[in-house]
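Hi there. Long-time user, first ticket. I'm pasting a complex I've been working with (about 916 residues overall). I'd like to know whether the download I got is complete or cut off, because the file seemed smaller than I expected. Thanks.
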Amino acid sequence: MVAKGKRDSESEAQPAGKKRDPERTRLVIIEAAREEFAENGYDGARTDRIATRTGMSKGVLYHYFSSKDDLFVAVLEDIYQELRSQNEALVLAEFEPEAGIRELIAHTYQYFVDHPEFIVLVNSENLMKAQHLERSESIRSMFTPLSRRLSELISRGQEQGIFRSNVDVVELYVSIVGLGYFFLANRWTLGVVFNRDLLGKGAEEVRLQHMTEMVLDYLRNVKSLDGKE
Amino acid sequence: MVAKGKRDSESEAQPAGKKRDPERTRLVIIEAAREEFAENGYDGARTDRIATRTGMSKGVLYHYFSSKDDLFVAVLEDIYQELRSQNEALVLAEFEPEAGIRELIAHTYQYFVDHPEFIVLVNSENLMKAQHLERSESIRSMFTPLSRRLSELISRGQEQGIFRSNVDVVELYVSIVGLGYFFLANRWTLGVVFNRDLLGKGAEEVRLQHMTEMVLDYLRNVKSLDGKE
Amino acid sequence: MVAKGKRDSESEAQPAGKKRDPERTRLVIIEAAREEFAENGYDGARTDRIATRTGMSKGVLYHYFSSKDDLFVAVLEDIYQELRSQNEALVLAEFEPEAGIRELIAHTYQYFVDHPEFIVLVNSENLMKAQHLERSESIRSMFTPLSRRLSELISRGQEQGIFRSNVDVVELYVSIVGLGYFFLANRWTLGVVFNRDLLGKGAEEVRLQHMTEMVLDYLRNVKSLDGKE
Amino acid sequence: MVAKGKRDSESEAQPAGKKRDPERTRLVIIEAAREEFAENGYDGARTDRIATRTGMSKGVLYHYFSSKDDLFVAVLEDIYQELRSQNEALVLAEFEPEAGIRELIAHTYQYFVDHPEFIVLVNSENLMKAQHLERSESIRSMFTPLSRRLSELISRGQEQGIFRSNVDVVELYVSIVGLGYFFLANRWTLGVVFNRDLLGKGAEEVRLQHMTEMVLDYLRNVKSLDGKE
DNA sequence: GATGAATGAGGCTTCATTCAT
DNA sequence: AATGAATGAAGCCTCATTCAT
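Hi, the file is complete. Here it is re-exported in full:
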């Protein structure tokens, strides 16, 4: 998906030449599956609809993937790969510590805003206790590099005396992701129980600002060390 | 479910007296449905299995609820009711501001830990864009009271000069919930991509401490007022 | 199948009253499956056609049997049961030894003539190395009683000095069955390679006479003991 | 298959020279198909697996044979040819009558033991009422020569006064084949219903001895002439 | 000639829901 | 009220065959 730079042009059903192109077909299938899984979750997705989206016959799916499960794994690998490469494009080393954190938060959040599929896919996968992810070699420890880069950023901040010590990088990253992800994933129910419209652009921006402040306040709090907690 | 104090006694198939008790039957069905939906999500849940769990026949389900959808609404209402009444049991007015926040965070988190069903059910409902919740009168604005009470707590903190001003209570509550919910909901995939075991009691406690610190640091940051953000 | 005396009336699709009768439905399904498997073998049989034969919907099959395999097991159990009870109806003890053998041969042969399904079903099962039969408790050692009765008959013949000694009853029974079964099962190919019409009543009777002679000659040959073989 | 002496070298995917050899390719395909049909029967066989076995692409199959049916015919012709030439290699004229019969029984039986495919293929074909064989010119009356040679042997025995008169050669040959074929084909189910292990070498030899005795006793029974049967 | 991608009909099985009893 | 048999529309997947390259 991420490879080949063929992305963007979504759901085109065999363009131009119409010639056979297995590589491309594979991508078209993953793309179609991604949409279908994203709109309906794993259990709600229908292989028939995936086929329809590709513009090809149902049998083709099974020519490329051995099962719905297998296809779901491929979609997960694809989308995680995409998130990671999006992350990697952000060179944290170029920023001052605080600006780096801001960028990381904003980029990550923006990815979720632009790719609501990610949330549905990952929720689906957690419902199934990550049984597909566990089968995927390429996803294991995928974010270790990011951890390291984030770690370096934090260290620089600590050396400059502007960031607290005692930061668990994974916990921090989970918070950075979670503050945005939870909001975006649960906008619909939250909107009902709080009787607020959380679906628009405005709500999204309010959220980003709030969560950025929260994370930075946490990191900046130099004195918390001598506190009792 | 939460009502009547009949909880705890799970899945008993009409005890002792054997007399027909429609109210009770209704609760038994909701209980069974809750388990089934929680383990499999909406699409993964099976009406047959729900019937089996109740120990009654499938016809009974349809006598009490007109469809799977209808049953799902009932389950959602039940579990939201439960969370709310759990929240209400915590009298925030009795606590000093900071302690009140701590209590709220801990109680809320503990509820999710004790009721993993909540997460699956709510995720399922968001996948379907809250179409069931919208049909439910009883859930609309359900958390407005909590907002008010939280608001009061914050105000007291602000009056005492220990909490920042400029706090959006809904955003704050979303963060309080989200920091724990996201972690608990996504433990499986997070565990794989970070290659960490996040499933145990230990990881749960580390999380609680981290998120408590984060929220409190945010609230305590008195100087952020003069910042531009 | 064999039970209830409801046999004979084949393939009736819910007679008279049309009332629900699970016992009867089960039998109707087995009956339909038996026909379908008999005409097409296991792999050639279609669950759709079985359903059509029952006059009910396809789902019913799965209400009574968990899979095509499971249904096949039921059919095998039914037909073996039938052969056995047919055998048991023949009281060998009432006959003189030679007449008893003649009766056994004729009855067994007649069963195959009347129930060509048996042959197809058993051939199918052997193609699959009896994997279904092995799962069936009721079929294990089903013919041990017959072995015993045949044994007694042989013994009487030996005491009267008209039957040879040294008879392996199972080998004998395999021959009695095989001489007829093989012919009936392979009539079509045999007819082609020998350019003979083996399909009619005439050929069936010629076969019976030939095989009866062969078996009896084998049993009567008192002197073979002192032979070298 | 049997032709050309190219047998033995199984399933090699175009060896050494690599030059195109249509004759050889045809044989390779038939060989592969034979294995596949033998292991799974006609309906259970898969054209994909046949292609895989040949090491060539599926298109090649359809280049040489117009359909699965067509391929099955070719396999049948091949294997019948093989049995016939195996038979022809046995020069019955060289033996004394009784020894000739023994040889014929043993050779035929051994062929089935060595070629379990034959049994599955022929059973499959009979399930389909020999519809393929009927299309094959080369198989019609294929065993007429053998009948003649067997006839001569019997005649010699009759002239020597050691064999009965009144022998129907085809019936006799059907018995000779059937006594072994039935046992070998139905070992699995027979083993279950008689609770005996019939799969080993031992059981095979016991069977051969039993059936040889039976056939010879039948032929030797000189007195049966005056009987009425 | 050769490949294997693509087709489409159809195979087995499931499932929410209805309905006879 | 209650049961669970029955329905029928789908769901996932397979497979002989065709066809673009």
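A couple of notes from our side: Chain C has a mean pLDDT of 89. Chain C has one domain: 3-226.
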